[in-house]
Design a protein that fits this description.
single chain; 112 residues; mainly alpha
């Protein structure tokens, strides 16, 4: 009976030692993971701390570009209107030139 108790105690002690070693390894791994995550968090914080300033600067640049685009669109419309007006003037001038030419030429006869 004494031998049975000693063997049971030995088996329990060995099992407890195995569990303790596994917990010790797990603790060591968790420590490493914690250190790595802390390092990554600090790096990300240093990277993204100035981010709001860059976002605001980008928004201001975008706003300025939109205003500039509106100005260019307005100028483009003005130029298109001017080109249409010049084309209209040229067409009217060509018609008048043809009309004057047809009236001044005595060789042309219109039957109907």
């Amino acid at each position: 009976m004494l031998i049975f108790v000693i063997i049971c105690n030995f088996v329990l002690s060995t099992l407890n030692l195995y569990i303790a070693l596994r917990l010790w390894r797990l603790r060591r791994t968790l420590k490493r993971i914690t250190r790595t995550l802390t390092f990554v968090e600090r790096r990300i914080d240093t990277i993204f701390t100035p981010a709001p300033q860059f976002v605001i600067k980008g928004q201001q640049g975008t706003h300025a570009l939109r205003l500039y685009y509106q100005q260019l669109s307005f100028q483009l419309e003005q130029v298109q209107k001017l080109i249409r007006l010049i084309n209209l003037g040229l067409r009217i001038w060509q018609r008048q030139a043809r009309f004057k030419k047809s009236q001044s030429s005595p060789l042309k006869f219109k039957l109907f």
